[in-house]
Amino acid sequence: xxxxxxxxxxxxxxxxxxxxxxxxxxxxxxxxxxxxxxxxxxxxxxxxxxxxxxxxxxxxxxxxxxxxxxxxxxxxxxxxxxxxxxxxxxxxxxxxxxxxxxxxxxxxxxxxxxxxxxxxxxxxxxxxxxxxxxxxxxxxxxxxxxxxxxxxxxxxxxxxxxxxxxxxxxxxxxxxxxxxxxxxxxxxxxxxxxxxxxxxxxxxxxxxxxxxxxxxxxxxxxxxxxxxxxxxxxxxxxxxxxxxxxxxxxxxxxxxxxxxxxxxxxxxxxxxxxxxxxxxxxxxxxxxxxxxxxxxxxxxxxxxxxx
Length: 307
Known about the structure:
By secondary structure, this protein is an alpha+beta fold. The chain has two domains: 2-71, no CATH class; 80-306, Fumarylacetoacetase-like, C-terminal domain (Fumarylacetoacetate hydrolase, domain 2). Helix content is 15%, strand content 30%. The protein has helices spanning 34-43, 45-57, 172-176, 223-231, 288-295; strands at 2-6, 10-15, 18-21, 63-64, 70-71, 80-83, 101-104, 109-110, 115-117, 126-128, 131-137, 153-160, 163-165, 182-190, 201-206, 209-215, 241-243, 259-264, 269-275. Strands 1, 2, 3, 4, 5, 6, 7, 8, 11, 12, 14 and 17 form a twelve-stranded mixed beta sheet that branches. Helix 1 packs across helix 2 (45-57). The radius of gyration is 19 Å and the shape is globular. The N and C termini lie far apart (46 Å). 45% of the residues are buried. The model has no long low-confidence stretch (mean pLDDT 96).
């Protein structure tokens, strides 16, 4: 199934370019926020809501997609946990880098058609896109073993881990957690629709030009290992998001007026805009210094890393 949030954060089912309102199947859920609503559905999806959603979708009149305003399918996840440097960089690295990650602000999330705002208050050296596979937790996960990891996954979503470079030598907070730095969507796809999450093509375009184009098979620490490691540190709950890292080959600057499109096979395509009131400019195209540094082809870090 493909679940969406739309208009006034109503929960819907996306199917055949139409949306089915699911409100009638959720009447008993006491949800103060839209995220509470989707969390409740995720937590009891197999026991209650999968069958109920199928039933209600056969009764309600669908709405054409061009008549709805899509919202992020997880409007404000309880936790966004992101993996750092988690790819072999198209085989450039012979072994994965040490496990590493960080928490990204849930307030960073935006959805289809919204705008990434490059902060004027902080003079970053450059801003980058980072197309990533988002893994959505389906049930409480603490000290989960690799062999049980997939049992704790509800589904998958496109996620763009927008990043500001050069604000601080080590702070992921300054780099990753600005408001609007987490485009997500257009819908949340249940795990049963994805045959192999470790073999998905990830693509991102800026102004129609392809930037990132890589496969999740290049992931250094695979999804089960990520979940085992993360849940040895903190408990993950239904509706939490793991951003599984990006392949840095293909990263490039984003700037005022840009349009970013991101698509992972089976997960749809999300389009967002970029705005910068300072109208700062960087080179167009790929950031080869960044790509070479992460891949180990150059010992010299990019200029922003020396600030």
